[in-house]
Amino acid sequence: MSSKRVAKSAVDWAALAKRVPPNQKEAYRAFKAKSDMFVSRVHKHNESLPKIDFAYYRSRIAAPAMVDQFEKAYQAVTIPYPKDAKNMKVQIDKDEKTAQEQSKAYVANLQKMIDDSKQLLDNINSVPPYEDMTHQMYVDYFPDQARNPVERPTFWPHLKKDQPENNPHTIN
């Protein structure tokens, strides 16, 4: 029975505390306090049944046969270690593997997004500052946004929302 007693916490609380976001610190502290309470309640009890000196009781009680009967009953007591009747551990292990695979895929997707964002930032940083940019440079860097009065004439104030092609009811 001693090999089955939980000697050390299976949870690495320090590593878990590093991963908890700041807005969930209070919930984490409450969860850890409740876990510590359960662990202390388990460790409060002895690992095995206490030893009883039945010889002392035999010498003090008039009916030693009754003490022998109690001794046999006491030695026959076994407290079984809880078993996983519904085999939940297998399901939990399977769910954990699935979650790890999903996490790896999620991290890979985020890493791809980070790489794409870095590429975009490199492209943005390659553009000269607005103060140094000329109209010709703007047309070269952003041909789809630059005004081109020859190919795409616009009406004042030259905003996209004010152009007739954006509102079919403007021109009948």
How is this structure best summarized?
By secondary structure, the chain is an all-alpha fold.
Commentary on this structure:
- The protein is an all-alpha fold.
- It has four domains: 48 residues, no CATH class; 34 residues, no CATH class; 40 residues; 42 residues, no CATH class.
- 54% of the residues lie in helices and 0% in strands.
- It is built from six helices and no strands.
- α3 packs antiparallel against α4.
- The longest helix is centred in the middle third of the chain and has 39 residues.
- It is rod-shaped.
- The model has no long low-confidence stretch (mean pLDDT 86).
- One of its GO terms (molecular function) is proton transmembrane transporter activity.
Describe the secondary structure blueprint for this structure.
Layout: H1 13-19, H2 25-44, H3 54-60, H4 64-76, H5 88-126, H6 135-141
Helix pairs in contact: 3-4
